[in-house]
Design a protein that fits this description.
This protein has 201 residues and is of the alpha+beta class. It has 5 helices and 10 strands. The protein has 2 domains: 6-98; 118-178, Ubiquitin-like (UB roll). Strand 6 and strand 7 form a beta hairpin. It binds zinc ion.
Length: 201
């Protein structure tokens, strides 16, 4: 695993070419974390152009995914990506590696015999530790309508930013919405991408 073998070199070269051709897509999970301001598209591109493969995850039913480590400015970033087919690269998620999963940007922390406090589960996506939070604003879509849920109890992956909501809480939200129990209304800014994109040229 330590050696810079030819396979690893070829993977990075392949990722770099996809980035230069803009032949990649971002999962909604990656997008949401970017919207939160933790990672930018520029960070992801920098890592895919200059980083290295840290782990390869083989999967019996999907194509393998790759954990790529690199830096963007001063920031250490992990990007998890895969060949999405048709020579497209798909960015599954990206995060800043941190404790308790990573003791350094390239070293997984040895969890042997350790007790983790405040640890209420493990993130399905990145293996990071989940902690209980009260989310200030949570966008919730139901039957084409958007609702903003304030002060929502959730668990948050401190590493990749994924949020999880318990089943009973989700059922309560559905019930409150169907009973139209609203605390207020807020204005939402809408970008119609088809309409606005030409203004960017
Ligand atoms: Zn995670």
């Amino acid at each position: 695993m330590q050696s810079e073998d030819i396979t690893e070199y070829r993977e990075m070269e392949w990722f770099g070419r996809r980035v230069n051709e803009l032949r990649y897509t971002l999962s909604e999970h990656a997008l949401r974390f970017m919207v939160a301001g933790a990672i930018s598209v520029k960070d992801i591109e920098a890592v895919l152009l200059t980083g290295r493969v840290l782990e390869e995850r083989r999967n019996p039913i999907r194509t393998p995914s790759y954990l790529v480590y690199g830096t963007s400015g001063e920031k250490n970033v992990h990007v998890v990506c895969a060949n999405g087919g048709d020579n497209w690269l798909v960015i599954l998620f990206a995060y800043v590696p941190a404790l308790p999963v990573w003791s350094s940007p390239t070293q997984r922390r040895n969890r042997g015999g350790e007790t983790m406090t405040d640890h209420v589960g493990t993130c399905f996506f990145c293996g990071g530790a989940l902690e209980e939070i009260i989310a200030g604003n949570y966008d919730y879509r139901l039957e084409g309508q958007m609702y903003v849920i304030k002060r929502l109890p959730a668990t948050l992956c401190a590493q990749c930013g994924e949020k999880y909501i318990r089943a009973d809480v989700a059922k309560n939200i559905d019930a409150l919405i169907s009973e139209k129990t609203f605390s207020g209304t807020e204005t939402v800014h809408v970008v119609d991408y088809e309409l606005e994109k030409d203004l960017m040229l």
